[in-house]
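Box 3.1 A note on notation
Throughout this textbook, protein chains are presented in two layers. The first layer is the amino acid sequence; the second is a token string describing backbone geometry. Keep the layers aligned when reading.
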Amino acid sequence: MTVIIITTPTEFLGVDGYIYFFDDDSGQPKKVVVQVKSGAVNVAQVRDLRGAVEREQAAMGVLIRLEPPTEPTQRDALAAGFYERHASPGDAIPSSRS
């Protein structure tokens, strides 16, 4: 996997940066929206990140925070789902399930 990190903050609705990565043979990078928060994060901010991911058509969002998460913010983040890599033909992906 190749990762390209762009840390230039944007002024577009709270996106602090982007990470681009390649995880298949398509040659098309996948986008990650990054937001950084220094204080306590509430559920509304997690939902804002989810909105940014959808708006930016990103593969995922990353919220970097200094404070431990609260139970409501964890629930909301988990409800957003997980990124699933789509394998190229002949690409073996090890399973973590037994």
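Strands lie at 2-6, 17-22, 30-37, 60-65. Residues 43 and 70 are 9 Å apart (CA to CA).
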